[in-house]
Specification:
- The protein has 374 residues and is mainly beta.
- Among the domains are: 40-139, Immunoglobulins (Immunoglobulin-like), CATH 2.60.40.10; 145-224, Immunoglobulin-like (Sandwich), CATH 2.60.40; 230-307, Sandwich (Immunoglobulin-like).
- The protein is 13% helix and 49% strand.
- It has helices spanning 310-353, 362-365; strands at 15-23, 26-34, 38-45, 52-53, 57-68, 73-79, 82-88, 94-101, 110-118, 126-130, 134-135, 138-139, 145-148, 152-154, 158-164, 169-173, 176-177, 185-190, 198-208, 211-229, 237-241, 244-247, 252-255, 259-264, 270-271, 276-279, 285-293, 296-307.
- Strands 14, 16, 17, 19, 20 and 23 form a six-stranded mixed β-sheet that branches. Strands 6, 7, 9, 10 and 11 form a five-stranded antiparallel β-sheet that branches.
- The longest helix is centred in the last third of the chain and has 44 residues, at 310-353.
- It starts with 14 loop residues before the first strand and ends in a 9-residue tail after the last helix.
- Residues 345-355 and 357-374 have low confidence and may be disordered.
Length: 374
């Protein structure tokens, strides 16, 4: 029994090799499987942020080119030797990411990416390839924190606004910087209506190895003040026509927001505010528009002058009657005149057409000319 050796070249994939021999006139065939594997050509961890704030998330990103079989290739993200993520390498090139929460202990810690090509089921072993480590630099930037001595303050009270951050941090409150890094910034104000919902902004700047890092924060003040009604939004005198639709444009303000009602003096009649309503002469009169809240009351007087529709109808009706009367008289006179003229014409026609009859004497009948009666 002997052995024969063969040299195989350009093997690029898994293959099955067949070997046949003849022995005593019989053919004997054997086979063997060839498994092809390849280590990754590039394993690289993407650069980390120049400075990472403690308590904030950052992303680890590793790229892997090459390596097969992919079903046996795994990518591991590491902090020191601690596994942060383990994922299969799928695409080409493969990219694996993981989100990490930065802590104070992470300052100076090395992060790396490692590939594992597991060929142990084929009896070959575990092949490892690791990227160059990258070091993380962290900083503690607590705040800035903006505080109000009274988040909700009554009108006229004194409110103190302060802003602070960690050591070596320079803070600026509404454009006014603190005396020195690490010191708080403050301002005081006498709360007024215009300060309601006012926002105060604080910016913080920290210098780390020649780099300036910035963070901002803000807070809003609420001021409690009594109800008010602007005359510009609530006219003192309204002149409307009867049987028309109008809107009473009165607006109230205050904190807490007041209730606004408009009642007619001497009665409990109320007109709607801010919505259309049908106006008639019964709305004529003086109204008390009152805004009320837990902070007090505020009243404005509004006079409604409703112009009745009949005031325009009467003159028109009278004018129409006068016009009809004049026309009737003229037509009557024309009729009388025409009838009088027609009867006179008939009288003249009778005199000119018919001759009076006279008696004739015998002598006249024989040829004598009759004499005309006097």
């Amino acid at each position: 029994m002997g052995w024969a050796a063969f040299n195989l070249s350009n093997v690029t994939g898994n293959s099955r090799i067949l070997c046949s021999v003849y022995c005593n006139g019989s053919q004997i065939t054997g086979s063997s499987n060839i498994t092809v594997y390849r280590l990754p050509e590039r394993v690289e961890l993407a650069p980390l942020p120049p400075w990472q704030q403690v308590g904030q998330n950052f992303t680890l990103r590793c790229q892997v080119e090459g390596g097969s079989p992919r079903t046996s290739l795994t990518v591991v993200l590491l902090r020191w030797e601690e596994e942060l993520s383990r994922q299969p390498a799928v695409e080409e090139p493969a990219e694996v990411t993981a989100t990490v929460l930065a802590s104070r202990d992470d300052h100076g810690a090395p992060f790396s990416c490692r590939t594992e090509l597991d060929m142990q089921p084929q009896g070959l072993g575990l092949f490892v390839n690791t990227s160059a480590p990258r070091q993380l630099r962290t900083f503690g930037f607590l705040g800035p924190t903006v505080n109000l001595s009274e988040p909700t303050a009554p009108e006229g009270s004194t409110v103190t606004v302060s802003c602070m951050a960690g050591a070596r941090v320079q803070v600026t409150l509404d454009g006014v910087p603190a005396a020195a890094p690490g010191q708080p910034a403050q301002l005081q104000l006498n709360a007024t209506e215009s300060d309601d919902r006012r926002s105060f902004f604080c910016s913080a700047t920290l210098e780390v190895d020649g780099e300036f890092l910035h963070r901002n924060s803000s807070v809003q003040l609420r001021v409690l003040y009594g109800p008010k009604i602007d005359r510009a939004t609530c006219p003192q005198h309204l002149k409307w026509k009867d049987k028309t639709t109008h809107v009473l444009q009165c607006q109230a303000r205050g904190n807490p927001y007041p209730e606004l009602r408009c009642l007619k003096e001497g009665s409990s009649r109320e007109v709607p505010v801010g919505i259309p309503f049908f106006v008639n002469v019964t709305h004529n009169g003086t109204y008390q528009c009152q805004a009320s809240s837990s902070r007090g009351k505020y009243t404005l007087v509004v006079v409604m002058d409703i112009e009745a529709g009949s005031s325009h109808f009467v003159p028109v009706f009278v004018a129409v009657l006068l016009t009809l009367g004049v026309v009737t008289i003229v037509l009557a006179l024309m009729y009388v005149f025409r009838e009088h003229k027609r009867s006179g014409s008939y009288h003249v026609r009778e005199e000119s057409t018919y001759l009076p009859l006279t008696s004739m004497q015998p002598t006249q009948a024989m040829g004598e000319e009759p004499s005309r009666a006097e």
